[in-house]
Amino acid sequence: MTTADVKEEQQEEKRSLEEMFAQLEGVIGEMEEDGISLERSFDLYNKGMGLLKECSRSIDEVEKKVLILDEDGETHEF
């Protein structure tokens, strides 16, 4: 892994879920443009897949933190 990859990964950790979704929308929009090269499509695809994995990880972490309140007023993990 290169230094640039490590920096990008660290930045991804700091991004909110909303920011990552916005970036995904940008990637998708760029992929839908006419005349995009195969190489650029592949790069965008890889970037999008990385963002999706990060979103999934972030959502999993949130789900683990969610507590359910039962009818007796006790909390349980989701």
List keywords for this structure.
mainly alpha; two-stranded antiparallel sheet
Structure overview:
This protein has 78 residues and is mostly helical. It has one domain. The chain contains three helices and two strands, in the order αααββ. It has a two-stranded antiparallel sheet. Strand 1 and strand 2 (75-77) form a beta hairpin. The longest helix has 28 residues, at 38-65. The chain starts with a helix and ends with a strand. 1% of the residues are buried.
Q: What topology does this entry show?
A:
Elements: H1 3-14, H2 17-31, H3 38-65, E1 67-69, E2 75-77
Antiparallel strand pairs: 1-2
Helix pairs in contact: 2-3
Mean pLDDT: 81
The rough form would be described as: rod-shaped
The proportion of residues forming helix, as a percent range, comes to over 70%
Distance between the termini: 35 Å
Query: Which regions contain 5 or more consecutive residues with pLDDT less than 50?
Result: none
Instruction: Please summarize the sheet with the most strands.
Output: 2 strands, antiparallel
Our Rg estimate from Cα atoms comes to 17 Å
Oligomer: single chain
Number of β-strand runs: 2
H and E order? HHHEE
Q: Order of strands across the widest beta sheet?
A: 1-2
Q: Specify the structural class.
A: mainly alpha
Percentage of residues in DSSP E strands = 5-15%
Number of helices: 3
